[in-house]
Design goal:
The complex is a heterodimer of chains A (138) and B (337). Chain A contains four helices and four strands, in the order E-H-E-H-E-H-E-H. Chain A is α/β, with parallel strands linked by helices and 138 residues long. Chain A has one domain: Rossmann fold (3-Layer(aba) Sandwich). Chain B has a five-stranded parallel beta sheet, with helices on both faces. A two-stranded antiparallel sheet of chain B has the order 4-8. Chain B is α/β, with parallel strands linked by helices and 337 residues long. The mean pLDDT of chain B is 93. Chain B folds into two domains: 131 residues, 3-Layer(aba) Sandwich (Rossmann fold); 124 residues, no CATH class. The chains are: A alpha/beta (138), B alpha/beta (337).
């Protein structure tokens, strides 16, 4: 599995994590290019349907970045995201998916370093897990 | 002019959909005057050969209920597709996989191991006989249909024109569908022949829902006394109303709600929803623990959500086969931290 380059979808909240990723870029920090970024207005805009669709289309990992608790631009979106991801992980486990393929992190606009490190770590973790198995519907 | 020909067929189903047609009561006589029923294995004596001998597109409309579990059901669906101008996917099992679709949490191997391998207490099988697709007997070879690994919906096997949702479809919707189709004024292909509003929208208990709904404890109907007028979610009981199509009881409350039971989701999703389970995760997690969300640690949230017994089975009760995943992944089970 040495040559395996995972496909990762990153849903980043516009106000915090996306700006953090921007900072990582402008500061020329190095991190793996496996994550494809989708900017959302809030981490709670990410519908669990989006996550399941990504996995079912062969995505090896899904990352969601939001503002730290208390910092949500819309007051409480990130609390909802937290609860949704916890519940979704329970469902994913029952659906046989390794829940380490899904990760939620709070990264602020000033935490470029944290974003870069998280990407390194998460990509590495997905590499160890290997490609997502093809769903066999025979 | 010859009367339009109608056929009914059942695949992996309980027979409730056949009952739903009988439930047309006297209306079925009106229908019978207008049409010829040319195939209905449950109620009338026709054979597969009769269908095979028909011309292509000879049947005006064929109602297929039940999910696709075996190769025989797949073959019959394909045959009926060839012989019919229109196919109506009838009932939750046909549209979404339904209750048989829950078998997609397992695969053929584990189902056989459980059913024939002595694990199932209601099966007496001391010799461990496992059904074979081909078996030799003195008279020759005997065949059984192949048991698929995955339960499929009708539209995953053949092209479907319309859907009638429900477990089972409400007779008034069935009657409406037959009348519409016979009138020749056909709706757009792929239409679900039921209202497109969520059940909560038409629910009379909607007014009893507080402005800010917050669930601090998950209750189960069997363990609490259910208030017959209050919103189920406000009582902490999981109700699939937010993600389920209305229409099971006309303009009135859902059939289950009227019987003081929460909605289980048999009418499937309104057109805006694509994966019922995921949408229910979003809906429910939004209101569970809303009141003290700022003070709740991850462990607190985990503890609260752990009260939901079997979330996947509850949210996907009727729709697992039609979900994005369609089934459980059997091979990604590396130990988790």
């Amino acid at each position: 599995m040495k040559d395996f380059e995972p496909k990762i979808v990153c849903f980043l909240c516009k106000w915090c994590t996306y700006s953090g990723a921007d900072l990582a870029g402008t500061s020329r920090m190095k991190y793996p290019p496996n994550g494809v970024v989708i900017k959302t207005l809030c981490s709670s805009r990410v519908d669990p349907q989006h996550i399941l669709l990504a996995f079912s289309k062969g995505c090896d990992g899904v990352f969601i970045g939001g503002c730290h608790p208390g910092d949500c631009h819309y007051q409480s979106g990130n609390y909802k995201t937290k609860r949704r991801i916890i519940l979704l992980k329970k469902v994913l486990k029952q659906l046989g998916l390794n829940t380490n393929r899904l990760r939620l992190e709070w990264i602020s606009a000033s935490e470029g370093k944290k974003f870069a490190n998280t990407m390194v770590e998460f990509t590495d973790q997905i590499k160890k897990l290997g490609p997502i198995p093809k769903i066999n519907c025979e | 002019m010859a009367k339009p020909k109608i056929a009914f067929y059942w695949c992996a189903s309980c027979g409730g959909c056949e009952e739903a047609i009988i439930d047309l009561h006297e209306d079925i006589l009106k229908v019978a005057e207008l049409i010829d029923i040319v195939f209905w294995p449950c109620a009338m004596d026709f054979k597969t050969e009769d269908v095979k001998n028909m011309q292509d597109n000879e049947i005006t409309v064929c109602f297929i209920n039940g999910a696709i579990r075996t190769s025989e059901q797949e073959e019959m669906s394909k045959l009926l597709r060839k012989k019919s101008q229109l196919i109506v996917s009838f009932g939750a099992c046909s549209q979404l996989g339904g209750i048989p679709g829950l078998a997609n949490f397992w695969d053929r191997e584990s189902i056989f191991a459980s059913s024939y391998g002595g694990k199932c207490p209601s099966v007496d099988n001391p010799d461990g006989v496992v059904p074979q697709e081909v078996s030799e007997v003195p008279e020759g070879e005997l065949y059984l249909p192949r048991f698929h690994n995955t339960v499929k919906t009708t539209d995953q096997v053949i092209d479907v024109d319309y859907y009638l949702p429900g477990c089972s479809p409400a007779p008034y919707l069935t009657m409406q569908a037959i009348t519409t189709i016979l009138s020749g004024d056909l709706p757009t292909k792929g239409t679900v022949l039921a209202p497109n509003k969520a059940l909560c929208e038409v629910c009379s208990r909607n007014d009893s829902k507080p402005e800010k709904l917050s669930i601090d404890k998950i209750n189960r109907v069997s363990l609490v006394e259910v208030d017959p007028e209050k919103c189920f979610l406000a009582q902490g009981i999981i109700c699939m109303g937010p993600v389920t199509r209305s229409g099971c009881n006309g303009e009135n409350d859902g059939r289950c709600i009227a019987a003081n039971m929460p909605c289980r989701g048999c009418y499937g999703h309104p057109s805006e929803v694509h994966d019922v389970g995921a949408k229910m995760v979003a809906a429910l997690a939004s209101v569970v623990g809303l009141e003290d969300e700022e003070d709740m640690s991850e462990a607190d949230v985990q503890k609260l959500l752990d009260q939901i017994v079997d979330p996947a089975g509850t949210f996907y009760r009727f729709s697992l086969a039609k979900s994005y995943f369609r089934r459980k992944i059997m091979t990604d089970s590396k130990e988790e931290k």
